[in-house]
Amino acid sequence: GTDAVAGAVNIKLRDDFEGFELRGSFQDHIEEQDSKDYVLSAVLGGNFDDGRGNAVIALDHADREQMVKAQREFAAVATSTTSFLPEGRFFGSGDNPIDPAAIDALFQSYGSAAGAVPSQNLLAFNEDGSLFSIGQFNSPQDVENFRYPVDGAVNTNLFPDFYSYNFDFVNLLRLPLNRDSIMGKMDYEFDNGIEVFAQYSYTEYSADTALAPTPIPTVGVRAPGEAASNQAVSQLLTPGSNADFTFVVPATNPFIPTDFANLLATRTGDDPRFVGAGATEPFTMRQRTLDAGLRLSSYNNIVRQFTTGASGPLPFLEGWDWSFYLTEGRTRIVETQSGNIDTNRLQTLLEDPSGGADICAGGFNPFGRQPLSQECVDYLEVSSSLTTEFKQQIGQFYVTGDVVDLPAGPLSVVAGYEFRFFDFAFDPGSAGGAISGFNAQDPSGGTNEFRDVFFEALVPLVSGRRWAESVELNLGYRSSESQFNDSITGINNDESRDDAYKVELGWALDEHWRFRGSYQRAVRAPNFEELFDGTGSAPQIFDPCNSFSGARNGPDGAEVLALCQAQDVAGAVGPNFVATPGAQASINLTGNRNLEPETADTFTLGAVMQSPFEGVFRNLTASIDWYSIDVEDAIIVPNVNLIIADCFNYYGNNPTYSNDQESCATIFRAGDILGLSDPNTDSGDFNNSNNGEISTSGIDLAASWGFDAGPGYVNLNGLLNHVLAWEQSDGAGLPKIDYAGTVGYFGAGLGQSFPEWNANLTGTYAWRDYTFDTRIRYIGEMDNRAAAQYAGETSLTGVDAITYVDLGASWALTETVNLRLGVNNVFDAEPEEYAPNVQSGTDPSLYDIVGRRYVASFRMRF
């Protein structure tokens, strides 16, 4: 249907289970004993009424221990950096700069050499009122006058070449999870052949996340009367201007240290964004609120589903059957957040003549790691409860039977009707508005409905020929009518009718060889988030303004530098500029109710072999399949790195390096790129669009071989995937980039790593009551995904190939009791690291982040 582009996996549950079965497993890291996983499940079932009916009830409990990144050496120190420092960082204005001579004189008084601090945008604050320089990455300018301990809070991978806060030290590497579920199912068959069933499941699980203390601000800051609901307001900004992703401090703030006040007094220019001029003009900063604590998020999820249905023979048409089912599922997700900061209240404290001391005890001092009173924490910190509710109702009815006997066999068909109704509501609670920390969100909700008719036919073409044991044609068609409603605005979109269809051909040459091919057209309607929801993100970026970049050192290097300086409100970009390595840029997204469904065309060709050999190879089977998938009108979230690359002419769209080019107009830079705002929307939020294209192709190979070996039996299974291409274009004027063989970075999304070669090999050796098993997993080498987006940049590192080996052994203690003990990741292979990357320097969705661990399990059945 139109709510799925790639199909589904169907799971058939047993309807004849009898007895009681108890299973349990436990695993933990062998050396550290710090990553425990427990699973315990039980199933009770039996037949009744002389076997006509069967009832089953199943219980399951799982518990997973959390891990902090400090518990693993590879994750303890961030491989990327942040410009949000607990010490507070100054972002100066290019139109009203501090006198460089005054900066030089101040740092010479601290004992630094002349010229050690060449830019106003390297300034941060010690607790004693002095200043320090954060240095410049890969340049002669190192950290100067840093007066804090060099401990876990310092990114020691870079220090003293460059100072950055080590946010990874306190982040969670593995999330804790607690899950309980119960499922009941009953089937019954009447004498007339009608079967009925009912099934109910309930699952409740909780999980926690923890991130480093809140960076402030992560929202836009606008002049009075011009801010959207998720933006802060500053009285210090002039109409039409903004200070996005920085906060604004008046020059009269009482907490300004004396040394810094003397530097501010040397300003003689005028930045039109701010009220005032010269020494009295406001300025911008970033900071990180340590005293407000970690950004904690606790999820409680409750999922209920009830399904009932029946099937049986059509009484008036021999050989035909009917079937229907109805199901309703409800999901309620309650997320409790703490550690968010109300950015409007933050601006109120900063702009208050007392620095906020008249509002809460001690006020807010952003200059250094200064203590914040509990009263001010309570004033600023936003603890909120966000609630998401989903309801899904599905009903389906179909009939199936043989229409006519053809020379090669009966023509079989299925025809039916299906409806699907979805209801979604999201209430951000107090997390709505100008919140820094977790992504600011607005209330959203809506419904979507699908009404489908479908038809499928299996047409036998050839049977019993010398050149073909059978040839079959499978035809399928589905027509989906859909409509969406935004419950917040009451807006309905127009009804849409979309068609999906398929043609599959199967040719069985004989009992050993079978060939297959297919073409399928699939459609996917936009989901709730894409239609209605707004959110924000801060993906990792690459900055072409780096002095070492290929863009800066190419034939157009002078033009690139001029563009960098034209968009830099801080005047920090000079010939030797080096951006904060591994920096992130903020972007806010909103739903688009005008989205249309995606369409996908899939072609496959394959062959299956059942062994034609005798002897040791008699049980060999293998298959090979080629696939090609093309998605048109793909729903694409604006990609920050593609926008930046387009601005700097990586795709040939800005040959004059004009700052007026559309992509360039979105970039907000104060030295570093701090964020992107869409100039075509009042809020600056970007919309999803149907402008994308995605194409992928590859080869899947599977093989299985079993043979006798000594007193036992060996069984080998292998799966190999080779990605030939994974190409994506994000919109008009943007190239179709091939991401095959690239590893994803933070912000690209989970599952965005595409190794060209990926293989799994499993083997077992069974002897009497013992079974020994092994699994070998291979992930091929990859380049950095960003290297494909910024062609020619050599500083973006990739990963080598990696192999994981798991071993295990099981013992059938009795006919009803089985024990197993194993070791996963036997050689303790650490995940591949690459830079820059915010996610512990790796892709945790692809690589093993726990390490070598033992696994023990049992199964008892009575």
Structure explained in plain terms:
With 862 residues, the chain is mainly beta. The chain is 8% helix and 45% strand. It contains 9 helices and 43 strands. The longest helix is centred in the first third of the chain and has 10 residues, at 100-109. The protein is elongated and about 95 Å long. The mean pLDDT is 93.
Give a nutshell description of this structure.
By secondary structure, the protein is mostly beta strands. The protein is built from nine helices and 43 strands.
Structural class: mainly beta
Q: Please provide the count of β strands.
A: 43
Mean pLDDT: 93
DSSP helical segment count? 9
- Which blocks of ≥5 consecutive residues have pLDDT under 50? none
* Molecular shape: elongated
Strand content: over 45%
Through-space gap between termini: 43 Å
Main sheet? 22 strands, antiparallel, barrel
| Cα Rg | 31 Å
Helix content: under 10%
Task: Draw up the topology in text.
Elements: E1 3-4, E2 19-29, E3 37-48, E4 53-64, E5 67-68, H1 73-76, E6 89-91, H2 100-109, E7 123-125, E8 131-133, E9 172-174, E10 177-189, E11 195-211, E12 215-216, E13 221-222, E14 232-233, E15 247-249, H3 258-264, E16 283-288, E17 295-313, E18 321-342, H4 343-351, H5 374-380, E19 381-406, E20 409-427, E21 435-436, E22 444-463, E23 470-486, E24 491-492, E25 496-508, E26 513-524, H6 528-532, E27 535-537, H7 557-566, E28 587-590, E29 598-610, E30 621-636, H8 640-647, E31 667-670, E32 672-676, E33 686-687, E34 689-709, E35 712-729, E36 737-738, E37 742-743, E38 757-767, E39 770-779, E40 783-784, H9 785-789, E41 802-812, E42 817-824, E43 853-861
Parallel strand pairs: 13-14, 28-33, 37-40
Antiparallel strand pairs: 1-26, 2-3, 2-43, 3-4, 4-10, 5-9, 6-16, 7-8, 10-11, 11-17, 12-16, 15-16, 17-18, 18-19, 18-21, 19-20, 20-22, 22-23, 23-24, 23-25, 25-26, 26-29, 27-28, 29-30, 30-34, 31-32, 34-35, 35-36, 35-38, 38-39, 39-41, 41-42, 42-43
